[in-house]
Every structure is written in structure tokens, then in C-alpha cells.
Amino acid sequence: MARRPLPSILSTGSAQIARGRELARTAADSATDVLHPLITITRGLRRLASAGRRRWAETPKDRRGPLLFLAASLILVVVLVPYGPLLAVITLMAAAAWQGRDRNPPAPEGPDESQIQRLQVLYEALVPYFSTADDPAPLYAHGGDWETVFPTQEFDDSGRVARLVIRYPAFFPDGEAAPRARIEQLLAAKSGRGREYLFVWDEEGNELTLSVLNPLPTDFAAQRFVTAPGETVLGITDPSRVQRTLPLAHGEDRRDVPPVVWRTGIRSTEPHLLAVGQPGSGTSTLLRSLALQALQHGEILVIEGGGTGEYACLTGRDGVLGVEVGLAGALAALEWAVRETERRLVAANQARQAGDPPPDDTKHPLWILVDRPTAFTHLADTDGHKDPQSLLQVPLRHGRAVGVTVVVAEQFDALDSLGDAVRQHTRARVALGPASKEQLEAVLGAPPHTTPVDHMPPGRGYARLGSGPVHRLQVPATPDPYDDATSDAHRQAVLDLLPPRSLPTDTETLPPVPVEVVLTKPVDTDLVDAKAPGSEVGSAHALGAGAASPGAVDPLAVGADAPDPVGANVLSAGPVGAEQVSNAGG
Q1: β 273-277/404-411 pair status
Q2: Is 284 marked within a binding site?
Q3: What average pLDDT does the segment 110-117 reach?
Q4: Superkingdom of the source (predicted)?
Q5: pLDDT tens digits, one per residue of 205-217
């Protein structure tokens, strides 16, 4: 079916509106130019009137009479003098024009001498990279004009470059990483160190845009973020890199910030995370922030290899399954995590085969937070135990399907000691603290678009989720509340987010139940050795051990529906002693 043409008012309306706006803008500019003298005189008259009122208000009351007489005398003289009123009006208009002039100093049309010198230095530094000997019309040459290659320049208050557009010749290999890295390093060094620069390469137009990034705020603490279940906030980033904002509380004020949101669960393509940093860079702060967010909807298990007690505030809290700092505890906890992952997999598979939805306990989020797992590797090798990293393979490989999320934090110097399972299955990556571009590329899988700086505050770094772009990252301040160096505001913010401590299920301890067992059949000689010293005690121990075997009597099952073994009758409750056993055997 042929499409009917739109009415002319709809097809040409946008063009007419744009043309009307352009005409209105041109008319307004022309009116402003024509009426500019009148606007200036009006502004001056208003300023003169304001000055007269202030002068009259400042004059004492006893002097206002003579002042009025003097003003009246001047007016009379002006009226009597030939051409006096005309001269008075001309004088008043001149004074108003002088008072109404624009007193703001005109903005400089171009860079000043110091800025021109900076641009000339940048131009000369780029000559060896953007020029060749056989170029007939080179853009870059020693002693050339920088105005032809720097069409846009902006400077900050200190006189350093804030934004610069650079034209480069078409033969420059801008598609290769190494030449681009050399140019970025040169520009960052010549434009001023200690700042982060963003480089945007326009390969089609042969233009490079250099921009100085503002520092990310570090004055926000841990808090409840407005996120959906399965979403976790790693930190905040630049507004130009993400399409979403979150309300952030800063004291009594609230502001919208662009977050780096990490999605976990069955639908996630990056279900596990690896955080790497230098000592003091904030990896433990990141893990505490993730733990506080995970406790809103799930349970966590913390394994700390550093042994510094960074997560003692989580011990005994609701939803915290354990905080292990020793090798034995770490192995036991990770073995349980393996069995729990396998149990969830079996239960979910059985439910799918039966056509039923997965059980709720297989969808309940379980977070395994491991800080510095390589610290246990040497201890495990020394004691002959299994490496705890090997136990992470099952949760890392199969945890996404059953709601198990693994977060591993390690330092740069121990990155080579991480297992293959951790490297392969942690597609969400975070690098904190100062690092070279090579180190960042080894962790993130791609170099950042900004130049790393030598000094970073705690929690500052880069994040990359899967194969997405590299984001600048600032982790919310989540310090250890038990640390004396923590500020009161940050300590209270963390304590407010901690869940209450878990209470024991049984408030009272039940006393042991005494049981009297009388046997109608002699005790087996295999259980009681009469020749051995302390045979009576050995007989009681043998009975206790035999209670776990088939057909044995469980002393705590007296009065229940427990089967009576052959030749044994439970008669009354009372302590079981060696004398009773020997009497029963006689």
C-alpha cells in the first residue's frame, strides 16, 4: 500500500519554525545594536538616580535645607542663562552615558603571551611525530605557525591548557595503539602533570581533542543506593560515560551522580569480579561496600587472607555466614561453598526436569568475598593442604545459574599467583590505585582512555564490565568502623548499614539426658575386654560408639519411636555406669 504524503503543515513545519527562529534572533540582534545608546543612557540615568538617593539619605537633616536652596538656585541660573536648558540636557545625557557604560573588562580575543608560549612549545614537540621529509606541504615544521593546527584552545585559571583541538596529517597511523600512546604521553607531559586527560581521536577528520577531567568527588560515604535486586554500585564515574544517574546523599544535601552499576545473577554476563590494587588503594573498602549492599538481599561468606581483621565488623551479623581468617577455616568455608553450589545445581536441575520453577533457596543470593587468596597458597603448600583457590573453581564456573557470586581482591605484586579459574571467570574487573598503562591493560583487558596519575586518593581507579568501555571509578568511603583513624561521620555511616547481630536459636542449654540401659543378654566379648585395665570404662565407651552403628541404642532417643535392638530393653532413665554394665553382663 502506498503511503499517503503528510500534510504540508507537518512536512514543512519544522523548516518554517527554524526559519522563524532565525529571523527572530536576527531581529533581536539588530534591535540591540540600534537601541544600544538608549540602553546605555537609561542604565546611566538609573545609576545617577540611585547615587542621588544615597547622597540624600547620607545628608544630615540640619543640612538638607541649605542643600535644597543651593539646588533651586542652580536650576534658576540654568533657566535664565541663554541655551541653559539645552546645555543642561546635553550635560545630563553625557553623564548618563558615562555612568551607563559597560565597566566589565573586555575578554581577550586570543591567548596571552604565556599561553602563546605554551602552545608554541606543544607545536614544536609534535613536529617530530607529525612531519616527514618528503611532505610537500607540511602541517608541522620547526618554526611554523601553531594557529593552523590548534583551531580551538581553552585555558584554566592557572594558565594551563584545559581543552585543545589538534589537527594532524592523514599519514599518521592513528589506528595503532603504540603511536597514539606516544602522542598522549607527550601531550600529558607538556600540558602539565598531576592531571587526568581525556583523549578523543577523530580518525575520519584527523583531529585529536585533549580535555582535562575534573577530579571525581571523594566526600561521599557508604549509603543505601536506589538500585534494583541484582544491581550493585561499584562507585561513581564521569557524567559523559554512562546514561544513568543515582541520587546521592551528602550530609543534608542530595545530588545526582553517574554510577558504575554491576549486575549479577542469572542474566548477568559478568557474574564474578576481580579487584586488583596496591596496598592502601582501597580494595578492602570496595569489598566492604559490596558486602553491605549484598546483605540487603542475600548472604555473604568472607575469606580474609591478609589476617588484618578488616572485616571484623561483619562477624555475627544477620546474613553473614562466616568471616574466616585462618587456613583451616578458609578451607572448611570454601568446601561448604562448593557443596552448597552443587546442592543448588542438583535442586534446580531436578525442578527443571519436573517442569517446576527452581526452589527459592537456589535463587537466594550467596556472595563469596575473598580478600588476598594467594596469602593462603604458601601456607597450604607448607602444611600439605589443598590450595583454597582450587575450591573456587566450582562457584566460579557454575555459580551464576544458582545465585552464587564470587568477588576476589588481590594486589598487583601477587597477580601472577592467581589461579586460572579466577582469571578466566572474573569478567568484571576493577583496578585501584596508581598503576602504569601496562598494568591496567593486563587487569582490565584494554587501556583506559585517560592518562593515569601518580597519586590517587583511596578508592580511585578504573572499572570495566566485560567487554565494555573502561570507566574512571571512585569507590564510596567504607572504612573499617573499628579503626581509630576513621572519621566519626564515615564510622557512623558504616555502622548504620550493618545488620543487627544474630541471636542464638536456643536461649537455654539443655542438660544431658541420663539413660539407664539394662541388657538381658551378656555383653559381647569383642566389645568388652576383661583383661585390659579399665575394662569397665572401655565397655561404656564401646556402647557409646556402637550407638551410631545400625541396631545400636541412641541414649537421646529414649521415649521416641526408636527400635529396640535384639536382647536389649530400655527400662528406666538413669546414669549408665560401668557397674551396671558388668551386672547386666553377669
Answers
A1: parallel
A2: yes
A3: 82
A4: Bacteria
A5: 999 999 998 888 8
Question: Which one, of 289, 379, 293, lies nearest residue 329 by Cα?
Answer: 379
Q: According to the annotation, is 282 in a ligand binding site?
A: yes
Q: What is d(CA 261, CA 253) in angstroms, rounded to the nearest whole number?
A: 22
466 assigned ligand-binding residue? no
The C-alpha cell that represents 385 in the structure block: 593442604
175 annotated among ligand-binding-site residues:
no
Query: How many CB atoms are located within 10 Å of the residue 135 CB?
Result: 13
Report d(CA 146, CA 414) in Å as an integer.
47
Strand partners, 112: none
Which set of grid coordinates corresponds to residue 300? 555473604
Q: How large is the average pLDDT for residues 97-122?
A: 78
How far apart CA 473 and CA 463 sit, in angstroms, is 6
Confidence of residue 508 (pLDDT cuts 50, 70, 90): very low
Q: Grid cell 601477587 — which residue?
A: 414
Q: Interhelix angle for 13-34 vs 36-58, to 10°?
A: 60
Task: Give the total residue count for the chain.
Answer: 586
Q: Is 278 annotated as a binding residue?
A: yes
Structural contact between residues 237 and 473, judged by C-beta atoms closer than 8 angstroms: yes
What is the rounded distance in angstroms from the CA atom of residue 298 to the CA atom of residue 231? 12
**32-41, 45-54, 363-372: least confidently modelled range:** 32-41
| 283 marked among binding-site residues | yes
Whether 205 contacts 168, CB under 8 Å: no
